[in-house]
C-alpha cells in the first residue's frame, strides 16, 4: 500500500462497498476487524516512513475505537503521539507529516502530542480523558513509551478511584439524563444512552480499578446470551448504522431501521427494536450491578473505617438485608426451597433494596422450579411483589435479566422486549405490563379483590407477540397461568375474563354512545352481569392507560369510563352482604367448657399454621390476641372472629416472618398477660415496627372504608381496604374497642400487601353519620397512608 491517506480511504470504501464477486460484503464483526487491520497497517507503514521506529524515542498510541479494536467505518481516529522529551520542532515536523495526510483525506482525527509525564498528568486532571486512555494500545514505535503510559494511567486509576468515584457516577447519570434509555427510545443513542456502548466501557473501567468483574452478574446462560452477546449486538447495529448513513452516527434513525435489520439478518425494524431492547436492558442491569458492587468495594474513609461490619437484618424466611442489599440467610437452602426466589424478590420490592447479584446467580443455579399448582405461600409472595408499587419494576427486571422470571412465568418470553406497534406506547410490552402493575397497586383499595387486580395487570397483554387477537390468546394463557398459580376455579374464570375484556370499557366508552341502553346492556352481558368484574376492569383500564404513556389517561376518558361503569352498576344486580364463617362443632364444645385455650396446628402451606384462640369474650381480647401473634413474628393471612355464649372463638391463619412458630403455651401465657394489663401490646408493636422498618413505610394506595346496613338496627358491616402493616389487626381491634363498637364477628383476609377486613359492629343507638365519621377518623389514624402529594409548583421547583 502507498503511504498516502487517499489510499487508506479507497481501501476503507472498498471494504464498505462489497457485494461484488471479488469483494463479498463483510458482516459487521468482520468489517470491524478488517478496519482495525487496515488502519494499523497504514499507521505502521506511515510511522516507519516518518521515522517512528522502536529506537526512535517516539510512539503512536491508539485510544477510542482503534484502541479497543472496535473500529467502526466512520469513527474518529484517536491517536496520541508520544515522545521522549525531544526537540519540539522535530516532534512538530513528524506530527505534521503524520496528521496532514489524514486531514487532507477528510478522515476525522482526534490527536495529541504528549510526553509520558504530560499524558499521565492529563489523565490525572481530566476524568473524561482518563476514561478514554484506559483503552490505550500501542501501535508503532517505541513500545516502552506506550507501556509506561498505559501502566501509569491504570495504576493511577486504581489508586485514585476512591476520590473520583462520585464524580464518575454523577457524570454517568448526567449522560443518561441527556441521552435516555436505549431500550425504550424510538430513535436511541447507541453510544451514550443508558444501556449503550459507553456503559460497556464504564464496566471495563470499574474492572481495571479492581472494583468489579468486567461483566458482573450475567453470563452466557442469561436471557439473550448475557453481557458479551449484548455488547456484540450493540456494536453490530452501530457498525451497520455507519455503513447505511455513510457517516459517523450514534443515533439510530427510524428510516434506517429496516435496512439495518435486514443487513444483520435480524428482521424488520420491530425485530431490530426488540434485539436492541434486550441488549440494552442486559447492559443496564449489569451497570447497576457494577456500580453497586464497586461502591461497596471502595475502601472506607475517616470514621467509617472504625464502624462495625454491617449487621444482617432478617426480612423473611431465608432472606436478610446485608450492606444495603437483599441476600440469602446463612442457613438458606435454595435447592430445597423453590419459593425462595419470590421471597427474595418480594423483600427487594418492598424495601427498595436491590437483590445481590451473587444471590440472584445462586438462585439461578440452585433454585428448583415451583411445582404446579403453586403453594399458597408462593402465590402470596408473588402478590406481595406485585403490590409493592414502583419497587416491583426493578425487582422484576433483575429477575428477568438473570433468567428467574422466565422460570416463574414461561409465557413471558413472547412479550419480553417486544416493541409496541403504535406511537402512544412508550415502553416495550413486558415493561408496560409491569408499569401497569405498579399503577394498579395505587388503585388496589378501589376493588374488593386486589390480588386479581394485580394479576390481571400483569397478564393483560400476555397474548401479544402472536398473530391471533391478543385478548383472546391472553385469556386462554391466563386460564393456564391461573391454574398453575393455584387460584380457585372461580378466580381463574375472573382472571381470564379480565384479560379477555381489558379493552372493553375504554373501547366502548370512547367509540359508542353510552347514553344508549343497548350499549350498557352489551357491556353488562359481556361481563356476565358480574359487578366484581366491572370493578376490576374499571381499575385495570385506568392503570393500563397510565402505563401506556403521557396523555393517554385524562379527565375526558376518565369521565366517559366512569359514567359507563355507573350505568352498568345500575343495571347489574347488587352484591350480597358478607356473612360470618360457621364455627366447627368441636370448637363450640370447647368454648362451652370455659377458660383460655390456644392451639397451633399446621396449615395447608409449608410455612402456614392455624392458630385457634378460645377465651372469655372480654373487651380488648381480639386486639391483644392479634398483637401477641404479631409480636411473635406471625403474620395474619386470614382470620375468622366469632363466638358462642360468653366465649370468643377466633381462628387465624398465620405464617412466621422467619423461623418456626412459637409454642402454643407461650402464646396462651402472653395473651393472659395482655388481658391482665402486664403486657402493653401496642407499645411493644410500635417498638417492633421502628426496629424492623426504621421508618413507617408509605402506602401505595389510599385506604377505603365502606359501610353497609344490616337487618338488625344498630349493626353495620364495615369493610376496610388498605395496605398491611405490622400488627394492623391489633390496632384496628383496639380502635373499635376504644370507640365502644362491639365486634360481633369479623372476616380478615390478607392478599399480598393488601388487606380486605370485614367487621360486623354493633354501634347501638348511635349509628348515624357522625358516629361513623368518628370511627373512620380513628381507623384511618392507624392505617398506612400514601405520602401527601406536593402542589404542582413544589414539584416543579
TrEMBL record:
Q: Which residues cross the membrane?
A: none
Known catalysed reaction(s)? Answer: [protein-PII]-uridylyl-L-tyrosine + H2O = [protein-PII]-L-tyrosine + UMP + H(+); [protein-PII]-L-tyrosine + UTP = [protein-PII]-uridylyl-L-tyrosine + diphosphate
Q: Uridylyltransferase: where is this region?
A: 1-314
The cofactor(s) it depends on are: Mg(2+)
Q: Does the keyword Nucleotidyltransferase apply?
A: yes
Report activity regulation: Uridylyltransferase (UTase) activity is inhibited by glutamine, while glutamine activates uridylyl-removing (UR) activity.
Q: Does the keyword section mention Hydrolase?
A: yes
E.C. number, please?
A: 2.7.7.59, 3.1.4.-
Which keywords does UniProt give here? Hydrolase, Magnesium, Multifunctional enzyme, Nucleotidyltransferase, Repeat, Transferase
The record's section on InterPro entries has: ACT-like_dom_sf, ACT_dom, HD/PDEase_dom, HD_domain, NT_sf, PII_UdlTrfase/GS_AdlTrfase, UTase/UR
Segments forming domain ACT: 610-686, 717-789
In this chain the HD domain maps to 429-530
Q: Which molecular function GO terms apply here? A: [protein-PII] uridylyltransferase activity
Summarizing the function annotation, the protein's role is: Modifies, by uridylylation and deuridylylation, the PII regulatory proteins (GlnB and homologs), in response to the nitrogen status of the cell that GlnD senses through the glutamine level. Under low glutamine levels, catalyzes the conversion of the PII proteins and UTP to PII-UMP and PPi, while under higher glutamine levels, GlnD hydrolyzes PII-UMP to PII and UMP (deuridylylation). Thus, controls uridylylation state and activity of the PII proteins, and plays an important role in the regulation of nitrogen metabolism.
For domains, the record's comment is: Has four distinct domains: an N-terminal nucleotidyltransferase (NT) domain responsible for UTase activity, a central HD domain that encodes UR activity, and two C-terminal ACT domains that seem to have a role in glutamine sensing.
Q: Which family does it belong to?
A: Belongs to the GlnD family.
**What is the protein's given name?**
Bifunctional uridylyltransferase/uridylyl-removing enzyme
**What high-level taxonomic lineage is stated for the organism?**
Bacteria, Bacillati, Actinomycetota, Actinomycetes, Mycobacteriales
Q: Which gene is transcribed and translated to give this protein?
A: glnD
